[in-house]
Here is the input.
Amino acid sequence: MTYIAMNRFKIRPGHEADFETIWKNRESRLTEMKGFREFRLLKGPKGEDHSLYSSHVIWDSQEDFEAWTKSEQFRDSHRNARRAEGESPFIGHPQFEGFETVLQES
Here is the structure.
């Protein structure tokens, strides 16, 4: 079954475009990895103090995801992950969540 790796990001109000630009301009290199299936950056609800985003990556297995986190491709793609002009768009660190698929319907 597949493995889904997600990170939730709290972004300062007014910095959503900065955050999205960081993602659009990054060197992903995910497609070079065994087991990579799909990436999505999701924009969630806006609260008074932050906007919620989530990165959502589907892998063939948890082992493929873990190999990604130890790879040169991972280090390269995260090298400038938090860099932005002026005030950082991030509130704190992202919250990681990993899920094994137990049921899938298509």
Summary: Strands lie at 3-11, 36-46, 51-59, 95-100. The domain at 3-100 is CATH 3.30.70.100 (Alpha-Beta Plaits).
